[in-house]
Amino acid sequence: MAVWIIEDKCTGCGLCAKTCPYGAIAIEDKLAHVNERCTECGACLAACKFEALASDLEQEPLPDLSGYRGVWVFAEVQDGALAQVSLELLGEGARLAADLGQDLCAVLLGHGVAGLAADLAAFGATRVFLADDPGLVEYSTLAYARVLAELVRAHAPAVLLMGATPLGRDLAPRLSRRLDLGLTADCTGLAIDQETGNLLQTRPAFGGNVMATIVTPRVRPQMATVRPGVMGLPTRRAGTPAVVVRHPVVLEANDGLVRLLARQARTSQAVDLSQARVIVAGGRGCRGAGGFALLAELAQALGGELGGTRVAMEEGWISPERQIGQTGLTVRPELYLACGISGAIQHRAGCLGARYIVAVNRDRRAPIFQVADYAIAGDLFKVVPALMEALKGVD
Amino acid sequence: MNIAVLVKQVPDSADIKMDPKTGTLVREGVASVMNPDDRLALEAALGLKDALGGTLTALSMGPPQAVDVLSEALAMGADRGVLLSDRNFAGADTWATSYTLGRALEALMATAPLDLVVCGRQASDGDTAQIGPQVAEHLGWPQVTYAERLEMADGELLVWRRLTGGVEKVACPLPAVVTVLALERLPRWPRVGRLLWACGDKAPIESWNAADIAAPARLTGLRGSLTQVVKTFSPKSERATRWLEGGSVEQARDLVNGLRALKLL
Ligand SMILES: Cc1cc2nc3c(=O)[nH]c(=O)nc-3n(C[C@H](O)[C@H](O)[C@H](O)COP(=O)(O)OP(=O)(O)OC[C@H]3O[C@@H](n4cnc5c(N)ncnc54)[C@H](O)[C@@H]3O)c2cc1C
Ligand SMILES: Nc1ncnc2c1ncn2[C@@H]1O[C@H](COP(=O)(O)O)[C@@H](O)[C@H]1O
Q1: Parent domain of A288
Q2: Are A111 and A88 spatial neighbours (Cβ–Cβ below 8 Å)?
Q3: Both A119 and A214 in a single domain?
Q4: Would you say residue A258 lies in a domain?
Q5: Where does chain B have alpha helices with state H?
């Protein structure tokens, strides 16, 4: 119990019992007694006039975290190769490691994956922690969490980064809770605070309309997942091979509780706008299939894909897998061309990650212009054909 | 089958506006609603209850007005609501939130066992998608994320998971935690007949505080949080809007030149 009564000083006045929000103090025989309902909130300490209550509640000083060293990147394997986001993280991790004056390491789990260690080294890892076991051939939350937790406990890194992929977003929170670590999801920016050495983790909130910078000052490693496509891809360098540290894997029966029964790839004709380099998106301003046919031509001329707002989807002008926004897709193209789109907050949530945004709208006050790099106030039925013409002169 | 569904009250995104001058969010006076994914979680759980019987408890951590989402859950078909409300719970990050919800689930299980906990994939105000897996770890149960369909067969839960590249079908023994991101059917509407009851004094909704779930203050709310927000800012400043003036032909020409200079063409 972190709150107790100093019996010599207690007069049994009952002020503390009245103050306690939880009914956790009772007065018996002119003495206060703290029972198991106490949450150690400390309200009674301030109430007592006789300093008859004591606690060990003071904020503990910052623990010594200097024993935690190294920036770790979880190397996600997809179809036998390293996921692109893991390479992006190595590039970012190398910068962070340099700022900390520590090593960049990779953690590689799977079966028959040892060959990938060379790739990890080529992208900057100086050390690769390798757990290779038949039980890890398919991703399993419990098995992967067990092995990763063992590795983190054994080697005490300062930072652990994972891709915010379906796998990363399944595994990272499980691991963070197992090791009692803080975790920041879906970061778009990482940096080291030179004063404290803390990892500054920046992420979007409210669908990208607000950015928040988060730190994890008291525990290590500092865990973050990072969105794919946000950090640049580092260049591959032939150089020193990484030191490979093999971790012996011993799984338990419980780790296999969830069994994969079948996997069905999505049909090939399905579009995946999340990978598109250029997206031409339309909204209500396109007025119908005719307007979207115009946009489709422009998309084709730019080598891009067609997207749209929820209104466009509801009107049947685009298929649901092309709807962009909070209830649709989040996209991150190089170029996002928004035509006849007002730029409602729910729509912007899906397209703010674009490198460049161009907006065409009749209404100069349309909110989409607030987030546009290039703003064209005009009628899309004139501007888009003019664009097609201008593009012809390019090649 | 006894199921608990975790539901969160979030600001109604349809109601959130940007201040056109400052480019920041206007949060004052914004209405609150049930997190959209949690409505799917409730529907998924109600589907199992329809097929197999049992009880469904809706659990929410939030300020006193979060009771509204529990009333809504009752009106949709839940049997009982529990609101976790306490000043100590305020300002919780995902670690502290999952601890608090985990303690509450344990308190529920002190009277009757639970077979399944269903969450939404993510809350629309934070988008972390961490609570489901963290609650699963708290309880020591297996987890299945991104569910789009749930079915019981031979005492096991079958879950279809929606992933980027396709669909995965897994089997999971109970008890387990599932997070739901989509369903083939729309969530049912609150029933008018139940709505009056669910919003009335006789509604089976309890309010629990920190002592009711034996949660020490140092593990909940802001104090229990391992992460700290040090700064929030508007991302708008990153883009310098350039207006292209003139007629369509000039605008188109300037844009093409601009895109070419950026090596986008
Ligand atoms: C919970 C919730 C979730 C939502 N999720 C999404 C989502 O995921 N994605 C999404 O897109 N929306 C979403 N919405 C809807 C969103 O709030 C807006 O209603 C929607 O994005 C508006 O679509 P729009 O821009 O096509 O239409 P409008 O807002 O009607 O805008 C049309 C624009 O076209 C311009 N225009 C008209 N004619 C022309 C012309 N000839 N040339 C040029 N410009 C012209 C007009 O000036 C206007 O600005 C959601 C809403 C809610 C409440
Ligand atoms: N305060 C809360 N009360 C009840 N359930 C919550 C709460 N916060 C999160 N959840 C549940 O956890 C899911 C994921 O939330 P999050 O991890 O915050 O994105 C939500 O869809 C809810 O099911």
Answers
A1: 273-392
A2: no
A3: yes
A4: no
A5: 36-52, 67-76, 94-109, 131-139, 192-199, 221-224, 248-261
* CATH level 3 topology of B2-219: Rossmann fold (3.40.50)
| CA A263–ligand 2 middle distance (angstroms) | 28
Kindly determine whether residue B264 and residue A356, on different chains, have CB atoms separated by under 8 Å: yes
Mutate to test the interface with A, among B24, B226, B234, B254 (most CBs of A within 10 A): B226
Using the beta-carbon criterion (under 8 Å), do B256 and A391 form an inter-chain contact?
yes
DSSP state of A231: S
For residue A257, tell me if it sits in a domain.
no
Angstrom distances, CA of residue B252 to CA of A298, A375, B240: 12, 11, 19
pLDDT, tens digit only, all 395 positions of chain A? 478 999 999 999 999 999 898 999 999 999 999 998 898 888 898 889 999 998 876 667 888 999 999 999 999 999 899 999 999 999 999 999 999 999 999 999 999 999 999 999 999 999 999 999 999 999 999 999 999 999 999 999 999 999 999 999 999 999 999 999 999 998 989 999 999 999 999 998 776 777 889 999 999 999 999 988 778 789 998 878 999 999 999 999 999 999 999 998 866 556 778 778 999 999 999 999 999 999 999 999 999 999 999 999 999 999 888 999 877 888 889 999 999 999 988 898 889 889 899 999 999 999 999 899 999 999 999 999 999 999 987 55
Are A75 and A55 in the same domain? no
Residue A385 lies in a domain: yes
Residue to test with chain A: of B86, B251, B254, most A Cβ within 10 A? B251
Q: Check whether residue A130 and residue A176 sit in a common domain.
A: yes
Whether A227 is covered by a domain: the verdict is yes
CA atoms within 13 A of residue A129's CA, in its CB half-sphere: 25
